[in-house]
Amino acid sequence: MKLALLGLGKMGIEVGGQLLRAGNALTVYNRTAARAQPLVDQGARLASTPAQAAADCEIALTAVLDDAALRSITEGPEGILAGLPKQAIHAGLSTISVTLARELANAHAARGQHYVSIPMLGRPDAARQRRLVMIAGGEAATLERLQPVLETIGRTTVVAGREPWHANLFKLCSNFMISGVLEAFGEAQAVVRKASLDPATFVDLVSEFFGSPIYRNYGNIMVEKRFSPPGGTLALGLKDNGLLLDAARELQTPMPLASLVRDQMLAAMAAGFADVDWTSLGTSAQRNAGLS
Amino acid sequence: MKLALLGLGKMGIEVGGQLLRAGNALTVYNRTAARAQPLVDQGARLASTPAQAAADCEIALTAVLDDAALRSITEGPEGILAGLPKQAIHAGLSTISVTLARELANAHAARGQHYVSIPMLGRPDAARQRRLVMIAGGEAATLERLQPVLETIGRTTVVAGREPWHANLFKLCSNFMISGVLEAFGEAQAVVRKASLDPATFVDLVSEFFGSPIYRNYGNIMVEKRFSPPGGTLALGLKDNGLLLDAARELQTPMPLASLVRDQMLAAMAAGFADVDWTSLGTSAQRNAGLS
Amino acid sequence: MKLALLGLGKMGIEVGGQLLRAGNALTVYNRTAARAQPLVDQGARLASTPAQAAADCEIALTAVLDDAALRSITEGPEGILAGLPKQAIHAGLSTISVTLARELANAHAARGQHYVSIPMLGRPDAARQRRLVMIAGGEAATLERLQPVLETIGRTTVVAGREPWHANLFKLCSNFMISGVLEAFGEAQAVVRKASLDPATFVDLVSEFFGSPIYRNYGNIMVEKRFSPPGGTLALGLKDNGLLLDAARELQTPMPLASLVRDQMLAAMAAGFADVDWTSLGTSAQRNAGLS
Amino acid sequence: MKLALLGLGKMGIEVGGQLLRAGNALTVYNRTAARAQPLVDQGARLASTPAQAAADCEIALTAVLDDAALRSITEGPEGILAGLPKQAIHAGLSTISVTLARELANAHAARGQHYVSIPMLGRPDAARQRRLVMIAGGEAATLERLQPVLETIGRTTVVAGREPWHANLFKLCSNFMISGVLEAFGEAQAVVRKASLDPATFVDLVSEFFGSPIYRNYGNIMVEKRFSPPGGTLALGLKDNGLLLDAARELQTPMPLASLVRDQMLAAMAAGFADVDWTSLGTSAQRNAGLS
Q1: End of a domain among D162, D193, D217?
Q2: How many Å lie between the alpha carbon of C238 and the closest alpha carbon of chain A?
Q3: ipTM over 0.85
Q4: What is the 3-state secondary structure of chain D?
Q5: pLDDT digits (tens, 9 = 90+) for A161-195
Q6: Does D156 lie in the same domain as D205?
Q7: Which of B162, B179, B206 delimits the end of a domain?
Q8: CA distance D100 to chain C (A)
Q9: pTM metric for this prediction
Q10: Which of A167, B163, B273, D203 has a 20 to 30 Å separation from A32 between CA atoms?
């Protein structure tokens, strides 16, 4: 298939590698072009503008950091909207706001193009091992066309609903579920450490009980304070949390745990953890217990 | 081995069945003697007092509901302390306070007996399938003697520390980790439902991502509101939460998520859910979003 | 003095009355012109655009509902920025975001005009009785020129700082202090009512202790559920709360009580209280206690 | 009147001074007898046991620190219950649990004695100036007999209800209202300080708006960090908070602000503020904002 991929951060690079290995014709774009080199070496073509990347492809995938970055490559005379052929698909892999997903759906439809949201669950190493869980939002027929690409990238796809923003809401809620685990681990490790017991043993216990490698992974990062290099930064985590709180406000839904996570994230940022791994949100509970 | 088992609630009955099937000589005691019948039918001997049950056994296991119940069968002229032979072991499987665990350790030591705490993680059906995770607290030599029994009951044992109360603190923290998942699910399902999306699909997604059957089990109970019959009641869940908050206060450790869970539990109780499954704590987030 | 007043809601009407009674020449503007009639009857001149109102005045006061409304009368070819003479002052009385206050300071300065923020504390009846507390943010020399107007409107002025946004932050924090009292009253009244005691007596006690008529006023509104007509709506209260949380995020400051108030406000909105008095946020604590 | 006063802490000493100046015959008791000297110098008689102090008086007032202290002087062969004449009144001024108030009511009634709860609102300097607000719980006829004493001690009395514990619940809720103000001030001062503005000016503003000397007093203590010597310690504040949370649990009432205050108190204790003034609970919000 003729594909485009825009945004070559940690996740984008891995996704691009999978697409190339599966035999697709891939055009890539990144604001800092140098980051494209590994993919170009594997056969990708480098475009100089988003519009150029999107032209002549069936599906343009975007994997950028936030709403602002996605707007910047989608809108304007050199944006995806301007370049994408009619009937082609813009598949947004980024974690963006419900609001922007709605806007993009309308903007693409107005030009006879299709927009779907396909946010992904998993960290870069999961992407490399094709273990990502894909969340899909959009019309059934469009998702159907996307199916081979989804199978190339992830281990399974869950369809959230018929509107693209449905997938974005599911993604924000999934990140929230993880953040709740991080806060719970932070508090439990605080009380365990205050009792002079071993937090690593506690992580073992809980991971065994839940039967979840995710628990073991996050729990151990927290115990060992392996916050650098970050899988995803705390600042980014706060951004996602804010997108969920905004969506929840619009839906008149109080989310007290999401509020608590927000406050613990801000406390961790004020303590200097903004640019390291977001699991550092668990340090707030420990500082508040007088632990360093 | 010659064993005693005191307390034949949902968990006790399952534990007793495992012990008998493994070929142990088992004496049982329960305040309401009629509940012992299934075990007697399988070969257990019925004692008429806790002291009588404990006499002449190597290990007396207790599986009761709370501190008060454990005190009532341990203390006094007809209690375990009075009946247990020197060098024998009292292994407490119940979820009790850190304070009581400390008291029991001292009381048994003063009589030349041993006390260890072995609280268990898992619901009654996990007990039946020998999938319980056992948490052990106590002296290494005593735990060693207990090993065959632990292997009979559960799938694995995690040693929390050398004092019995270490295991009780780990158990309370484990229940807290679960309660955090329930609250997170409650809030996520609230916002998902307000967006007219399917909460069961969200449970699928999150369970798939975490790779955890526990998530799937709890999540589906919540979506389907299968709160009766209860695995463990909300009132019991609030009791455990209170024991953790008490321990955390003593250790000068704030636990804001545990506080939030407490408040959501109380709200669910005030709404009439006290005697049904504790997963009903997740209804509070949904009521606060205006959902029934 | 030659003054303009734009925005004739509940507060604006009262402010306009005071300015006219003090002998000022007043030009007024309101999107819905009919609301200006009472002031026109007292001698005010009615302008047909914001620019027209601002032209030829020394001080233009604005008293509108939110950021969007203030932007709409300030920007554009018919806005205040376009009409206000050089050296004249735009005094913003509205509760707006810290961000907009900064933007307005820059925009007016770029045109040789002055901007100051003068948000007010008090409800419409306090405005009528000249008991408002004025919060001032801006350059000392500009505030000096404004002094006669401030004395006409309120009972006292507190200078928050030299930048206009300083006053807006103080105002948002003041509203937050009130919201904290409402939440505390909501919870206390819940437990008092569950104990079958009289919440009105409790309000008496607390008001007497604090020596505060504000406590008595808010407390009694809550006990008697006099939520209509609203002094300020819950939706507006949530807007202000959101502006504070935004400012606090920018300043990396967790505000857990502000987060709690947000969640209780959302719960009250979901229960149908969006358009009534914001003291109704106290109903959430009572609903969660099972009280109607 | 013939009175006894047991418990001569900061509040007791002031209360005793007022009673003597009003011409009452006063017998005093304190565990550490030396603390009684100032009152003995003013004419009080010193008793060597609680029973002896209570014998031959019409009203025995108790002003001790907590449940345990009140039990220790009330129960046993040398306690108030043993010494107090029939028909005489035990008036408990201390901040105690709802549960203990109920027990004392029953215990005194069983001996033909009367028990009423009269907890007081105000700090020691308010006691000295007779500005305390008294909260009364008990039978009308008994409170009537107590009236002259109440007028001697405080500036006004609010009757909470006909059971002694009603007054204790009102007292715990009043302390909670104050704790909410401390937390709100803590958070507001945090954001104000992060914005490089003056927290003392903010205290001025809010105190002026609420018209409350209590706000000014507490707000300034917090800004100036005058935490020693304590009016009431943080450890004592946490004790009172715990008594309210216990009562609220029994009444199935979630109190999320009380939970938040608890957590901020624990964080302040973990940071070393246990034995200084309880206004130091406001330091938690500031530490979490990265302020020292």
Answers
A1: D162
A2: 9
A3: yes
A4: CEEEEECCCHHHHHHHHHHHHCCCEEEEECCCHHHHHHHHHCCCEECCCHHHHHCCCCEEEECCCCHHHHHHHHCCCCCHHHHCCCCCEEEECCCCCHHHHHHHHHHHHHCCCEEEECCEECCHHHHHCCCEEEEEECCHHHHHHHHHHHHHHEEEEEEEECCHHHHHHHHHHHHHHHHHHHHHHHHHHHHHHHCCCCHHHHHHHHHHHHCCHHHHHHHHHHHHCCCCCCCCEHHHHHHHHHHHHHHHHHCCCCCHHHHHHHHHHHHHHHHHHCCCEHHHHHHHHHHHCCCC
A5: 999 999 999 999 999 999 999 999 999 999 999 99
A6: no
A7: B162
A8: 16
A9: 0.97
A10: A167
